[in-house]
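Please produce the structure of this protein holding FE2/S2 (inorganic) cluster.
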Amino acid sequence: MQQSINSRRDFLKKAAIAGGGLVLGFSWFGADGEAPAVLKGSFPEKSIGFNSYLSIAADGRVTILSPNPELGQNIMTSFPMIVAEELDADWTKVKVEQAALDTKSFDRQLTGGSGAVPHSWKRLRMAGATARAMLIQAAATQWSVPVTECTASNGFVLHAASGKKAGFGELAALAATLQVPKDAPLKDRKDFKIIGHAVKNVANKGIVTGKPMFGLDFYREGMLFAMIQRPPAFGTKIKTVDSAAAKAMPGIIDVVVFKNNVAVVGKSTWEIIKARKLLKVEYENEGAIESTSDHNAIFRTVMDNGKPEVKRKDGDVDAAFASAAKIIKAEYQCPFLSHSPMEPMNFFAHVKADGVELVGPSQTPASARTAVSKLLNISEDKITLELTRLGGGFGRRLKFDYVLEAAELSSIIKAPVKLIWTREDDMTGGNYRPAVRYHFEAALDAKGNLVGYKCRGVGINAGNLVREDNFPSGAVDNLLIESIDYKSPVTTGAWRAPITNFLGFAEQAFIDEVAEAAGKDPVQFRLELLSKARITPAGAIKYNIDRMEGVIKMAAEKSGWGIKKPGISQGFSVYFSHQSYVAQVCEVAMQAGKPVVKKIYAAADCGQVINLSGARQQVMGGITDGLGHAMYSKLSFKNGAAEQSNFHNYRLIRMKEIPEIEPYFVDNGIDPTGLGEPALPPTGGAVANAIYKAAGKRLRNQPFMDEPVFSGKA
Amino acid sequence: MPVYNLQINGKQLTADVAADTPLLWVLRDHLGLLGTKYGCGIAQCGACTVHMNGVAMRSCSLPVSAVRTAAITTIEGLSVDGDHPLQKAWDETDVPQCGYCQAGQIMTAAALLKRNPHPSLTEIEDTMQGNICRCGAYHRIREAIQLASTKI
Ligand code: FES
Ligand code: FES
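Below is the modeled complex.
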């Protein structure tokens, strides 16, 4: 069950202290930090860095406070599972409370999908283990028996010799008076009863009954609604604004121009949608006005003549290529993509004389607050930011442009306002996954060994768009990895599995081409490279060879790699990203002359799986995401403006297009390394490699649907 | 502005809004029924799905003036206690990720099961094709509908 509470004082009141329970404060994020501590009825507002609390009430109820925003990565369920495991709690009696963010009291941090679990694993376990140790100590004291003879299980402490048994609730008051142990013992993973099992999302009930919990669901008496018209084309700015017709519309309070924004403020959403259409705004050029054809030309020129930054260089690349028996070259390209979380951008802001109130969905609340403080020149301690659940993020809500817009607007109109982006605003408004192009070259010796490898990436506002230390780096003696970024007015940002979301495809599809040229099986070829990296490494190796080998072998085995299946062609891919390893085998069949993706097997090594249900969901969702965008999605530009504006012309994957997906997890006892993103990068490669086997056509550009092979005529 | 008397979740509710106001915004801005979501505004994503006389409708593209005396059901009115077979199946199957699309998914599926309690896989997929889940929860959505259909 999930509930929302408003302050930590509230939590303490509701949770346990009033009824003689135990409350432990601890920190949810960060690799190190304070050890857990017992909290008494009143405690100083500022002194402690805790952002989470675990309470055991006299009636045995266990409550865990979740301080972080939830965007679908399920950590609101998986984190409390970790605490409950070490506590030996009865999961059915555990309640997760979502804290409303008050950044003054709750030290909260960014919600990156994959990064959250690894950082918190140890301290969440410690919190649970500490409470358990105290409850056991309390029982031992009460029963006058040695503490070593007492054990905890499923919400009770037991003393086997005497048959004594007490519920956590009965022991909580006494436990709260004890010294907090420094190094409470952690469980052996073979004793895990909650971790690694399938546990349902604690927010399910609220979601399926339509309870308000998202940013757009925030309403307050007297608040105004606003939408902004932004420049339709990148590289343009406002020249003139005629807002007379819009202002005359019913329900419209004001039209405000600030920066490059024309904001329509009114009393309801529909009224501002209608009025905004009546704005007459003229724009003028202030930067390059680019179309997709320009981007393609830029890719060509910069790839051939640009000045690359060398990111990694091993051996003598020129010599290796000069003496090669065979050279393979290929280029891969992807378009810009919109994040398109289902809930469009929105934020509530109320700038008052004595401070600022902000409410809404953000992946980076702390940075958003700092930026608002700078923008309005109001000190941070006067700004509260309350987080709502996020209707998806995919990286879009790492940016806080829309928070700043809301705050600035509220400060101008001196009223509480909810700023809403329409779907069209979101899709045409920038912060895209950057478009990139990669040029690969491989040199093979006479025996088909990979002796030289080059990758040069050109990106449009992509930053460093290579991952120079990823496989096959370390497995090739002569290697050159270069990156060139081109600056454009089209704005970009992190998109689920930044850079690797496309690089994973490009590299893995190219490796498939190289394996073919070498006359080797694609799985065998990768294993040979890994064994070369192990025996005679070239330069530094920053991935774990064993883990990568593990997922390769598992995916091959589970999918029956190399065993003929009638009418089915298989493609292979493996990728290391965001600290985890995922290998995939895609199966494609030809139907009516067109390739159809039937099934994808995935073998993931994300270390210890916390919640099997959530983990399967992340893998299946990540693959569906990766497949959908590789197949269908693109944003193209004409005269600086995005040509797609909503889901009628920007295609996302839908139910009929999903293949069967079979996820498997490597069980190796390594601490968790995260799973929000790593399942996505390998998908495009597995799919393209399978389609090549089935249809004889190499797919090097996304979206695949633009390729003739899908019209059945290739 | 005209006053509309609407039959929503078995209650008569009134809203004083322009005739072209989509039912979605009447529900959300004027009646405080926030379970029905905005996703696209152009009948492309299904996040705003409600029932009109038992039939699934995209409330973002349904002007309030066209509703007249029709019985509207939103996610809040689908069941008394969140115990519609689909809502139970959704939890059982652990469908939601971010959760934003799910009310619309459930309402689309509920209208299907109402007219056809035991749909084939193809019928399920054809019906659900209009609902986007950006998180990619399609496998479990499909599974949950099949599960609910066995409980009816
Ligand atoms: S909001 Fe109505 S279909 Fe998308
Ligand atoms: S659960 Fe996030 S959009 Fe469907």
